[in-house]
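Co-fold these.
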Amino acid sequence: MGGMRQAISQVPRARANPYNARITLEPWMSTTRYSVAQLAERFALEFRGDGTRVIDGVGTLAGAGPSQLSFLSNSKYAGQLAATHAGVVVLNREAAENCPTAALIARDPYVAYAHIAALFERLPAATPGAHPSAVIAPSARVSPSASVGPHCVIEEGAVVEEGAVLGSHCIIGQDCVVGAQSRLVARVTLVKRVTLGKRVLVHPGAVIGSDGFGLAFDRDHWVKLPQLGGVRIGDDCEIGANTTIDCGALEDTVLEEDVRLDNQIQIAHNVYIGAHTAMAGCAAVAGSAKIGRYCMIGGNAGVLGHLEVADRVTITAKSLVTHSIREAGEYSSGVPLQENRQWRRNAARFKHLDEYARRLSALEKDKK
Amino acid sequence: MGGMRQAISQVPRARANPYNARITLEPWMSTTRYSVAQLAERFALEFRGDGTRVIDGVGTLAGAGPSQLSFLSNSKYAGQLAATHAGVVVLNREAAENCPTAALIARDPYVAYAHIAALFERLPAATPGAHPSAVIAPSARVSPSASVGPHCVIEEGAVVEEGAVLGSHCIIGQDCVVGAQSRLVARVTLVKRVTLGKRVLVHPGAVIGSDGFGLAFDRDHWVKLPQLGGVRIGDDCEIGANTTIDCGALEDTVLEEDVRLDNQIQIAHNVYIGAHTAMAGCAAVAGSAKIGRYCMIGGNAGVLGHLEVADRVTITAKSLVTHSIREAGEYSSGVPLQENRQWRRNAARFKHLDEYARRLSALEKDKK
Amino acid sequence: MGGMRQAISQVPRARANPYNARITLEPWMSTTRYSVAQLAERFALEFRGDGTRVIDGVGTLAGAGPSQLSFLSNSKYAGQLAATHAGVVVLNREAAENCPTAALIARDPYVAYAHIAALFERLPAATPGAHPSAVIAPSARVSPSASVGPHCVIEEGAVVEEGAVLGSHCIIGQDCVVGAQSRLVARVTLVKRVTLGKRVLVHPGAVIGSDGFGLAFDRDHWVKLPQLGGVRIGDDCEIGANTTIDCGALEDTVLEEDVRLDNQIQIAHNVYIGAHTAMAGCAAVAGSAKIGRYCMIGGNAGVLGHLEVADRVTITAKSLVTHSIREAGEYSSGVPLQENRQWRRNAARFKHLDEYARRLSALEKDKK
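Predicted complex below.
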């Protein structure tokens, strides 16, 4: 759902009874509108061209119309600039030379666009108070300014802080804390001993605080290790749809601030993830691994348990980290995609790679 | 839950009050029965043997009894035909020569079996109307012939078309559309701006229309890119359990008609998937990738962002597509499974493959 | 949530009305306390040191305080023993020589710790009866000793046996059975024809009994194969968060007893998993594969369809099983992680591995 900024021109419709029988969420009723000059002032950008032009939305260079703002940050799309019908384009000073319409000049057009676009996001209004179908334990503390959607369940000892928004079907388990201004879009489960910082955004289907996978093998069967820790998630983190984060076995699983997790990521018990690290969809981190700050973990990449990964490490998609990484840099594993018949021939040879290396050495020795 | 066909002999039990306090779904109360001759006529198949035999279910060649229909489509199972106790077997003309029981002869026995078996599926009845525990926004439009299960939430501006079935705990977010005759089995979340075509089948835990993973790095922290597009899903698509499909950043994420997604698949923002493409469990497609028609993507295979994959491409399980594919065909990556000690030796050599290739070239050069 | 054992000293607070409007779950109100001597007697362990010391919790060697129990099972942590502040440590006879505090001596300290720690797990109390917001079909049978949480839905013909606990938002589909003392933590969906044995533990977001992915290709489009089987899960199994297990096409998908599945695992239709097999997060097993007993499947490993894997096979993380495995042992695939530029050079050479092998053979032939 994204940024928490609210446009000053957005006015939620007043309602006498925000939660009558069949109302859930109330959309913004007005449309956001800014002139190009207003945008320039608000975001401290220089503008060129018609500052009075009114902008009410955003679009791609190819798709935006005269009342929409677009951006150019990737030179790959520079060819589309000449033909754009956008009302205004965010771009850097050099590209602005060739801009056929109004321009907003930014050092980093992508970042500037991200800030501006948040103005035009139509977030569902979050009416303070709890929907009557929500089930809230007596010992739970819910801020009067928080919004609790239909069919939510808030268990004993849980805390929902000011301005937090729980969409439909969220479960806030025993002793969990939802920090101020956090937004659980819908159907999020905080199982137990989970603390979310401020402005945390969690997408549907995420499960945080489920049991870690801890087992001891007792002769002929498994014995479960109770998972007695919790999960601590820092301010400004984002957790994707159907992502799972297990509670720690004894101490907590931790995400520092501004960690960004895409969908279907699995974070095992006692993992520690440094601030500003981002992981793409389907990545997985095994128990007690410690990931540094400002790391980028590619889609479906994996990190084995008990390893350490330094700050500013990039792991490319589908790679498996099998040893600790001590130095910043980019790391990969895997083999290239090939047409299947060619691939089969090469893959079959892989099974003999050690033998080939020995034979190569033997030939070299013979030669001498 | 499968096909939407209803057997003419299935008669739901009449009920005065379909949604009294504790009723959710009403099962079919009668049993489906067809004679072999009726099946032959209904599906335009030739039959051999006793056409009056009554069939009330389906089973495997090894497991079916005299009132059950089985099929033989894979020659691997031909040896089981002689000993089958099935009442009738669907098979091709050649195999029918050796069939010890009644036979239904089909050009493609697997397809014919799929159609026939749908007759015997006992789908939960879908009583029109909404369960009293459902929460429906005033501006939502729900067809009187649609069925809305317990604890569903339908938000402002959403539309549920005729004959659509929402099982328990579905959330239909703002401005989403559920097309006619679509079935959301249970606990499906359409977050926002999602349009499902007709006869779309969505399994539990699926999340459609969650935010795409779009971030801009601003010096020392992430800024979220608002995800302002939607998701459009064509007619006859099927979406597996716990699969996630993100909304587009500016334009829509699109699945054309008859796309079939298995469980736990991740489809990122602005992906475009052509008609009749099927993906097996745990596959993942990164942002803005464009997959052709009639593709088959294997289990846990991945496609990197912004790539294009032509029509009729097959990707084998766990492969990673790292470049665009322009030609139909089968593509793979990965190395073969080996006993661990052997594998370790070969894998260690992989780290020096470039060096070996150079040494090989040097030897060849020396020889000349 | 873990072990089902209850400490004798735990006394749930009596309540007149266990489910008044806003109560969901009632926490244990007393604290669990045992003396070291009591623990020794209860678990048949020898103790050394002060048997009267009172223990009320568990912790790591580094983190535990004087009223907490810790353990030493991995010699890697032996260095922490001397400095521990734990009240008592579970360890083996040899390590006990150097224990600076009370000691509980166990043949397998990890297993002994697992049993002891379960005493100190604070499970939410499970009040018998159904929360008023639960929707239960008239033909469902729910044991009076079972606990049904807020917003659960129990469909026609379903059975919930004695002492079973359904947390909030569980859906028990038509004809499903939840065995005695099983615990569905929250938001678990049993779709249809699912039978759970006794003491099965299922974590949030799991979907069991969803349709298998069965399709027949009919000239130019897909035809769905109805999925008419069920799922049978044995006693003492554990199913992780957001894990999916499909129902069988004709016969059942089966997990024998004490199978342990971590989070986000995908089990396709008609898979059969032998007793005591454990799988780590994000593993996936394709249709009709048969996995033996006492296997260990690593994180994100995959098993292709229709294969057989013998008893006591270990598959390392991210490996793909592409052929049946007939012998116990450890198996792997994949290539090692490297710094990206080095990796690129080696990976590019992989595309020519077959050619290199031929050139190597040619050189050897020349030499003779």
